[in-house]
Write a structure and sequence with these properties.
Length: 215
């Protein structure tokens, strides 16, 4: 892990490392959605289009969250910048500062997203932020939210479930007073890129992961 470096794509140090034989092994991104730019009607339609039950998660759902997390832990593309560490019960338990949303097919949790809520000018994170960028609020009263993870069960992909659960999270958090949303992920994950675009996120950060070349 010590021989892996994550840098902004335009960082001068990247040029220096590549001259020394380092190579880019993964690319990742950050994106932002401002609350006043959200098209609520469009997001509601994206939730409805899934044709399944989409709702906030609670304490009773922790076992289902852990099961879906365990089943998909090896499915995240990219490298260290977008790596997802397995949930423990604490991280799988929704709270006021760590909101969870899920999509259900009958009794089965088939998609979920967890979002960490950040409050104040310092943007102090209320929870961990694995695999995405947490944006600090620019005003003392600002409330931002940073996506920790979004995942869909393997047998249910390609049906708009990831888009639906992300849309549901944005709508609920808007109603709770969140004014700015951050997300991110691997540039090799077309599904999450498409979902972010559908919701109106704008990519504003590009990152590269570099490793030393083989000598």
């Amino acid at each position: 892990m010590g021989n892996v470096v994550v840098l902004p794509a335009d960082a001068p140090r990247r040029v220096e490392l590549e001259r020394r034989g380092w190579r880019v092994v993964a690319r990742s991104f950050g994106a932002q959605l401002d609350g006043d730019a959200v098209d609520r009607a469009r997001l509601r339609s994206l939730v409805d289009r899934a044709g399944l039950t989409v709702r906030a998660l609670d304490d009773a759902d922790v076992d289902a969250v852990l099961a879906l997390d365990a089943a998909t832990i090896g499915h995240y593309p990219g490298s260290v910048a977008t790596r997802h560490e397995p949930f423990d019960r604490e991280r799988a338990t929704p709270s006021a500062t760590r909101r969870g949303f899920g999509v259900w097919s009958g009794d089965d949790l088939v998609g979920m997203t967890f979002v960490d809520v950040l409050v104040g000018a310092g943007g102090a994170a209320a929870g961990s932020d694995a695999g995405s960028d947490a944006a600090a609020g620019s005003a003392a009263a600002s409330v931002s939210a940073a996506t920790d993870v979004t995942v869909v069960a393997a047998g249910h992909r390609g049906r708009g479930i990831g888009t639906a659960v992300k849309a549901a999270s944005v709508l609920a958090l808007l109603d709770a007073g969140v004014t700015r949303f951050r997300t991110g992920g691997s540039a090799d994950n077309p599904a999450i890129i498409a979902a972010n675009t559908a919701l109106g996120y704008v990519r504003d950060e590009e990152w590269v992961t570099l490793e030393p070349g083989v000598s």
